[in-house]
Amino acid sequence: GSFGWSTGEVLSVSTSMSTGKSTETYQASAGSYTSATFTATDDPWDPAYDAVVLIRGPGPLGPMLEAYEPVLQAATALDATVLNKVNLIACPEAPGGRIVVAPTGPVNRDIDDARRVTEAAERGMARARAAGAANPLLVTGPFPRFPHALEVSVLGGLAACYALIQAPKEKRNATYSFGVWVPQGTDPDLEKAAAMESGRIVCRDIIQSDPMFMTPAKAAEYVETIFQGSCVEVTTKADYKELEKEYPCLAAVARGSVQWPPHMPRVVRLQYTGAGPITRSYFWTGKGVCYDTGGLDLKVGGIMKGMLRDKGGAAAVAGAMYALSKLRPAGVHVTGLLGFVVNDVGPSAFRPDENVVSRAGLRCHVGNTDAEGRMVMLDLLAQCKELALSQPDPHLFTVATLTGHVIRCYGEGYGACIDNGPARRKRFGQTVQDVGELWANPFEISMLRREDFDFIEPKLEDYDVLQSNPGPTSATQRGHQFPVAFMIRGSGLDHHDIDSSQPLPYSHFDIAAQANWPKPPTGNPVLCMVQLMLQ
User: Fold this and answer.
1) Where does the pLDDT of residue 22 fall: very low under 50, low under 70, confident under 90, or very high at 90 and above?
2) What does the longest C-alpha to C-alpha distance in the chain come to?
3) Spatial CA neighbour of 412 closest among 345, 522, 512
4) Residues 356, 360, 361: CA angle, nearest 5 degrees
5) Is the pLDDT of residue 11 over 70?
6) What distance in Å separates the CA atoms of residue 37 and residue 396, rounded to the nearest whole number?
7) Cα 419 to chain center, whole Å?
8) Which of 10, 192, 272, 300 has the fewest Cβ atoms within 10 Å of its own Cβ atom?
9) Is 478 left (phi over 0), alpha (psi -120 to 50) or beta?
10) Would strands 266-273 and 233-237 be described as parallel, antiparallel, or unpaired?
C-alpha cells in the first residue's frame, strides 16, 4: 500500500539452544514495523546483556535473586529513594556493569493490581534506554498475588519500545531488543505477550494518527494491509449508496463529509474461524470516528482537541483481532465490524430533530449530533445480532470512546463494562473486571437500569427511540448508561433479552477513559479483549 506497510507473517517465534540456556526469541510487530524483539533466558546475570532492569516489589527477592540483595542494600544505604523511585546503580558484577532498579511500590493492599508491575517495567526499560543500554535484561521479582506478573512486566517493557506511526523515521525504524529472565520451573506465556503487544501496536497506530493521515479510507487501507496473508478474512465496503442501504445511521453521520473522497466512510469486516468444531462466537463492533467535530452541535471552546482518538473502539477491535490472528485459538469464531467515518460540518450534515430509520426499522430521533458514536455502531450491532442467531454460544460487543461521562465516573485509565440481561446472568462483567485486574487493564462494572430505557422513550409519536438529549453526556445523569439502552433498542436487541426465546448476551465497553489523551496511547483495551476470547 501507499503507506509502505509490508504484508505476511509479522509475529515470529524462533527457538535455538545454547549452553543449557533457553533462548526462545519473540517479536512484537505490525506490518513493516517491529518495536522490539525479546529473548528468554534462565540466567538472571546473563552476560549477553548490557544492563539489568530489576522490577522489585516491597518484599524479598527470593532465593533465585538473592545475589541482588546485598547490592540493593548497599545502594539503599547511600540513597533511600532506591526504595521508591527508578534508579541506576553501578554494579561491576552485573551485565553491563549497571542495574536499573524499578520499584513497584505496594502490591498487597486492597487497591493494588497488576498495573504496579507493568508500570514499573515501562519506567525501568525507558530509564535503561535513556542510559544507553541497547540490550538490557528484564528481571522481574516474585509477585505471588499476580499470576501473570512476568507477562505484564514484559508488556510494560514492550510499551517503552513503541514509536508512534508518525514519529520521525529514525525512531519508527529503530528495533529494540531485550532479554527476559524466566525462572526455572515456570512457564509464562511469552508468545501471548508478544501477540498482545502486536495487537496494541495496531491499536496505537490507528488511534494516534492525525485525521489527515488516517482518514476513513486510509484506516481501511491500514487494516487491509496488516491482515494480508493472515488467517483473518477482510472485506471493505466503500460505496456510499450501499452503506446508506445497509447502515443508514452510520451513513447519516458520514453525510456531512462525503463531498471529499478521502473522508468517505468505510465499513471493514474482519472474520476469524479457528480450527475444529466451533463452540464459541464473538461479535465485536468498533466505533471508528476518524475525527469528531461534533457535527452541527459543534465542539467549541477548545474541546475538539484530541478528537483524533475518537476512533479508539475500531482501533481496539482491529488490534484484538490482529493478536488473535497470531495466537490462532481453536474452536472460536470471531467477527469484527469497524465503522470508519468523519463527523463533519457541512450543508448535508445530519442534524438535531432528524429522524433516521435504523437497519432494524426503528425511527431514531437525533437529539445531538455530537452523540454520533452510538449512531455509527447501531446498525453494525444490528448486523451482528442477525449473524449471531445462527452461531454457537454467541456474545456481542460494542467498543467505543463513547462518553465523557464515563471519565467523570471512574477517572482516567478505567474502562466500563455494561451488560444486558443475558450477559449479566453469566456474570460476564465480573469476568471482565477479574481479567482486567490480572492483565493490568482495569474495567469497572456498570449497570443498566430502567431509567436508562425511560430516558430514550419517544416523547412524540413520530419516532420510536431517542438518540440523545441536547446536552453533553458529562453533564447528564447516567450519561454513559443510557446510550447503551439506545443501542439495544435501536438495533432490535431488546427482542433477545432474558425473557426471549433466543437471548443474546451483549456487553458494551466504554473506553473513553482509556484513550489516555493527551498522554501517549496505551492500546490497553486489547489486553482484556484478547484474554476474554481465550478464556
Assistant:
1) low
2) 80
3) 512
4) 55
5) no
6) 34
7) 19
8) 300
9) left
10) antiparallel
CA 374 to chain CA centroid, nearest Å? 19
Check the CA dihedral 165-171-173-176 and report its sign. Answer: negative
Helix 115-130, helix 149-159: angle, nearest 10: 40
Cell numbers describing residue 266: 468505510
| The three three-digit cell numbers of residue 441, written as one number | 487493564
pTM of the predicted structure, to 2 decimals: 0.94
C-alpha separations of 289 from 125, 230, 432, 434 in Å: 33, 26, 25, 29
Nearest residue to 317 via CA among 156, 27, 511: 511
Q: Quote the CA–CA distance of 282 and 273 in Å, as a whole number.
A: 10
Angstrom distance (rounded) from CA 215 to CA 208: 12
Identify whether the C-beta of residue 533 lies closer than 8 Å to the C-beta of residue 283.
no
Q: Mind listing the domains of the chain with CATH numbers?
A: 13-188 (3.40.220.10), 198-534 (3.40.630.10)
Tens digit of each residue's pLDDT (9 = 90 or more) over 143-179 = 999 999 999 999 999 999 999 999 999 999 999 999 9
| Contact yes or no for 223/338 (Cβ under 8 A) | yes
Asked whether residue 307 carries a pLDDT value surpassing 60, the answer given is yes
DSSP string, 136-194: -EEEE---TT-TTHHHHHHHHHHHTT---TTS-HHHHT--EEEEEE--TT----HHHHH
**DSSP SS3 for 419:** strand
Nearest to 124 by CA among 212, 51, 197, 54: 54
- CA-wise closest residue to 509 among 426, 425, 441, 450: 441
CA distances from 91 to 50, 53, 140 (A): 12, 12, 18
- pLDDT tens digit sequence for 357-398: 999 999 999 999 999 999 999 999 999 999 999 999 999 999
For 74-83, letters b (16+ CB in 10 Å) and e give: ebeeeeeebe
Residue with cell 548497599: 74
Q: Which residues are catalytic?
A: 299, 374
What per-residue confidence (pLDDT) applies to 3? 40
Q: Three cell numbers at 36?
A: 522490539
DSSP 28-66: EEETTEEEEEEEEES-TT-TTSS-EEEEE-SS---GGGG
For residue 253, what is the enclosing H or E element? helix 248-254
Go through 21-50 and write b for each residue having 16 or more CB atoms within 10 A of its CB, e for each that does not: ebbbbbbbbbbbbbbbbbbbbbbbbbeebb
Identity at 187, one-letter amino acid code: D
Exposed / middle / buried, residue 499 (Cβ in 10 Å: 0-12, 13-18, 19+): exposed
Phi, psi at residue 389, to the nearest 5°? -65, -20
